[in-house]
Amino acid sequence: MVEAKQMVDALTRDRQGSAIAVTAVLGGISLIVGLALKALAGSTHASGTEAAAEDAKPATASRTPFDHSEVNEDEARTMLRAMVAATMADGLLDAVERERLYSALTTAKIGEAGREWLDREIAEPADIDQLASGVSGPEQAARIYAAARIAIEPDTLQERQFLKMLADALDVPAEAVARFDEELSL
Transmembrane stretches, by residue range (predicted)? Predict the structure, then answer.
């Protein structure tokens, strides 16, 4: 599915909340990148070192907090899979969630192949190990987690457990998880 970036943008734009409203200007992936960098800023890695915070700093002076140029289609597809898996964490896809997903397809002008991909992903969502495999560093891990967190309002025990297990598998620091929750609850 080559439209992963458009789908992530559409799903993120569709999310309600003042912190998310900025996506109308920035785009969904840009927002995810910005949230991930902000959440990682000042965090210490699970090992107790400052490595995650150092890795979270921009690689070049010209890079902005919302620079999404490092996010390729494969990572966008993983973000999308994380969003679907988070949506399915409670084992149910209610009518509102289904409408949101399919509305995002329409908004992103994604055709039948994208709909078929989404149907397969809903029928058999990625597990946490699949989502965490291939993640190459703390920034990418935070972006994948941010995508999953943006996709849902964790109002069930299963959704909260999914997010905790995903954060653990991705090695996202607890301080960063708390920052995501704080930003997204505004």
Answer: 20-41
